[in-house]
Amino acid sequence: MNWEPWTGCYKASDGCTNCYFYGPHAKRYGQNTIQKTDKFDWPIRKNTKGEYNIKGNKILATCFATDFFLPEADEWRKEVWAIIKERTDIEFLILTKRIDRFLVSLPADWGTGYDNVNIGCTVENQKSADYRLPLFLSYPIKRRFIACAPLLEEIDLTPYLHGVDHVTVGGETGREARECDYNWVLHIREQCMKANTTFWFKNTGSLFKRNGIVEKINPFKQNSMAKELGIDISDGKRLF
Ligand code: SF4
User: Fold this and answer.
1) Average pLDDT over the chain, rounded to an integer
2) Residue 235 pLDDT > 90
């Protein structure tokens, strides 16, 4: 399930170039004006019986079609933290390319982090990993994951995997997609094995290179093909 309290976004780094929500070929999916959606307070809305519309024991992917830490949302984020705090029975997954703004609008009672918040730092290349991940690890967060998506080159995550619960990897999707090399994926998997971190190869992307051959992958097959390669490392719990 996804919860998008606001919509709109703009480029933060190289990984955004072909963003399928706000990139040059994505006009029909989104727009760049950042505004609240009509789902802003969705997790705490109740029905006539006074029960929450969204039942508990769920994972809510939060701001997967925008960025949770956009400066334009600083005021709204305060309210959203309060909503998240109220729904301790829901796990909120927050993915961001703007982890350097994590401390802005953090609630006063955050402490070492809320138990029901899992923050994912996106890195697409070594440069973004070397800038974002030391910051990510320095912040008080109870549960962390790294999303290498879209994976644009070989990345060495080794110095950053301590304190990270999980790594997800995915190639770039869309007409202008850049190549994703399976060797880069396998290399990250190897790093995760050594660090005892779970790993999920989410999707191949549209241009997938394997055994020296670059193949165009149909958008509907990118997830299933990644799964069929059978390289995920699970600890028995649900992968994202
Ligand atoms: S941060 Fe995410 S949603 Fe925003 S432009 Fe970049 S890829 Fe798109």
Assistant:
1) 94
2) no
